[in-house]
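Reopening this one. Same input as before:
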Amino acid sequence: MNARESREIIFVRGTTEAVNLVAMTYGRKNVGAGDEILITAMEHHSNIVPWQILCEEKGATLRVAPINDRGELLLDEFEKLLSPRTKLVAVAHVSNALGTINPVGRIIELAHRAKIPVLIDGAQAAPHLKIDVQALDCDFYALSSHKLFGPTGVGVLYGKAALLEAMPPFQGGGDMISSVTFEKTLYNVIPYKFEAGTPNIADVIGLGAGIDYVNRVGLENIAAHEHDLLVYATERLSKIPGLRIIGTAREKAAVISFVLDGVHPHDVGTVLDQEGIAVRTGHHCAQPVMNRFGIPATTRASMAFYNTREEVDALVEGVRRVQEVFA
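Same output, byte for byte:
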C-alpha cells in the first residue's frame, strides 16, 4: 500500500470492520447535526450502512452522487454535492457489482480542495490494481485479505497518522492501553490503540502470504491478463441474444454482471453450477445499484489471473445451455 509508516496500518476483520471503525471513531467525533457524508450510487452495503447509522445518530445527512447508464460516476454531479457541510467522502475504488473503476485520484483531489477527508473502499481493487496511498493522498483506505487470496476474517485499514492519533479508540480492552486505573485509562500509541484484544496472528501471516503471491505474479501481469479476459468475455457474451451486461464503464475491472431475458439470475446460477461454472447471483450486497438499473439481481462472472479464455468459452456455452433449459 506504500504507507509512509507502519503505524498507519491497522489490522481489522475486513473492509466492513474498517469502514465501521472510521464511522464510529472519526465520524462520531467530527460529524454533527446538519452535516453531510457523501458516497456514490454504486457502493457496497458496507460503505452505506455504517454512514446511515452515523447520520441517524448525529442528525446528519447521507448524500449520494449519481451514476450514468454505463455505471460510471457523474463526476460533475459529485463535485456539485461537495459543500461546507460535507465532513467525509467515502467511495469504492472498484464497484463489486459493476466492475467500474472509479477515478479516485480526481475524487480525492476535488474533496481535498474543499478540505474534506476521503475514505476509499479498496476491497475489490486490491487484487487487480496497484495501490499507493501516498500517491493517491487518500486519508483512509480499506481492504480485505480474502480478495487477495488470503484467509477470511482479516483485513487492513490504512489511515494517515495525524488522523488516527486524533481519533478515539474503537474498542476497549487489552493491548489498546498503556495504563489502566479505576480512575483513568491512558491509551496506547497507534496502531495498537485500534487493535484491542488478542491479535489475529495466523490470518495476518496468511494475508502476508497472499500479498507475496500477488507480488510474485506481478500486478502489471495480472492487469494485462485480466483486461484481455474482460475484453474477450464482453465480446462473446454480448453476442448472445437476450443477454444484457449491467455495467459497461470505459474503465472496468474483470467483472461482468448480466441479466438474461426470461430467466431469474438464481436459475442461471443453478444451471451454470451444474455445468461446473462458478458465478455469483443476487444483489451482491449492492441493492441500490440493482434499483438504479431496475433489476432485482444479476449473474456475476468474476475473472482473475488464473482464468483462461477457454473458461470464458465454457461460460458462454453454459449460458446457452441455460437458454435451452428455459426455452
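So the earlier flakiness isn't reproducible anymore. For the record, The two ends are 49 Å apart (CA to CA).
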